[in-house]
Amino acid sequence: MTDSSPRTYAFFEGEFVPLGDAKVSVMTHAFNYGTGVFEGIRSYWNDEHKESYVFRLREHFVRFLKNTAMVFIDVPYGVDELVEMTVNLLRMEGFPSDMYIRPLAYKSSEQIGVSMEGVADGFTLFAVPYGKYIETDRPLSLCVSSWRRSSDNAIPSRAKVTGNYINTALAKNEAVRNGYNEAIVLNEHGYVCEGSAENIFLVRNGALITPSIADGILEGITRDTIIRLAREELGIPTHERQVARTEVYYADEVFLTGTGAEVGPVGNVDGRTIGGGQIGPITAALQDLYFDVVKGRKPAYSDWLTPVGLTRRSETAAPVA
Ligand code: PMP
């Protein structure tokens, strides 16, 4: 192989293949019934270090394996193997840029009928260059969605089940069609749950408030990161509790968190200006901290980073091409 320019691959059916060759049949169980579980992971390119860092990779795979087990999808790899597979994939691809990494386990048999008994399991992993999911350098405009978050007693909220993302898609789509950037989704009881694919934080009187893990949220890794950075770096406590819709309008600051969304400042909710419509000081401080941590500029949090070793690409076995 003489051409070493970056290109995308997928781990699919037990081997690395060019991403375009990783294809499933239209009869695949997961394609028809939404029987898959996925993760969204980011790596960040640090140009000074000439290195890519994957953020909280182990935690994503721990969550992934808990979720796949919850919905009876068997993944034949442990956390260590999945971490190694991801590092190999990123090295093989060799992009000196920020990347989005997507593991996906799914019911792979080609059959009619929703039962999962005796249905085979598939696993794939791919990574593509990726920039912003939502704007982070100017305040977002949000609406409260007319769609409720699907109940934990209908589809496990914390499980990142593919089928559940029609709920996310409807909420996001409605918001965008109506001229907003994002949606706030209420839970079945009418309390604030999260964004369409982000957790939500309010700032009131110098403290953070966020819906609790019993409110039907996805237990976000970015949410956990922000709670820890707020406490450890800024001495700011977080109250995890029920949040009523109108409390959002009252808040001094509001922001969204997620692997894709990062830390997204909110300037407006349902036409009500939040905190003067500017990025609030606590949001700005947390955003700065977050980007320093994920990009490898804060050594105290280097345990959260998995260096890819892009400069050691030649040590990785050549993919099947
Ligand atoms: N809620 C939902 C519904 C999501 O899809 C996501 C994105 N995974 C989040 C919250 C944020 O989670 P994380 O910070 O782990 O990406």
Measured by DSSP, the beta-strand proportion falls in 25-35%
Instruction: Calculate Rg over CA atoms.
Output: 20 Å
CATH top level of the largest domain is Alpha Beta
Q: Average pLDDT across residues?
A: 95
User: What general outline do the C-alpha atoms trace?
Assistant: globular
The name of the CATH topology of the largest domain is D-amino Acid Aminotransferase, Chain A, domain 2
Helix coverage percent: 25-40%
Determine the CATH superfamily of the largest domain: D-amino Acid Aminotransferase, subunit A, domain 2
Looking at the overall shape, the CATH architecture of the largest domain is Alpha-Beta Barrel
The low-confidence runs, each spanning 5 or more residues with pLDDT under 50, are: 317-321
Tally of extended strands? 17
Question: How would you describe this structure to a colleague?
Answer:
By secondary structure, the chain is α+β, with helices and mostly antiparallel strands. About 25% of the residues lie in helices and about 30% in strands. It has seven helices and 17 strands. The strands form two sheets. Strands 8, 9, 10, 11, 12, 13, 14, 15 and 16 form a nine-stranded mixed sheet that branches. Strands 1, 2, 3, 4, 5, 6, 7 and 17 form an eight-stranded antiparallel sheet that branches. A hairpin with a 3-residue loop joins β14 and β15. α2 packs across α3. The longest helix has 15 residues. It starts with 8 loop residues before the first strand and ends in a 14-residue tail after the last strand. The relative contact order is 0.16. The structure holds 4'-deoxy-4'-aminopyridoxal-5'-phosphate. The site of 4'-deoxy-4'-aminopyridoxal-5'-phosphate has 14 residues, from α5 and β14.
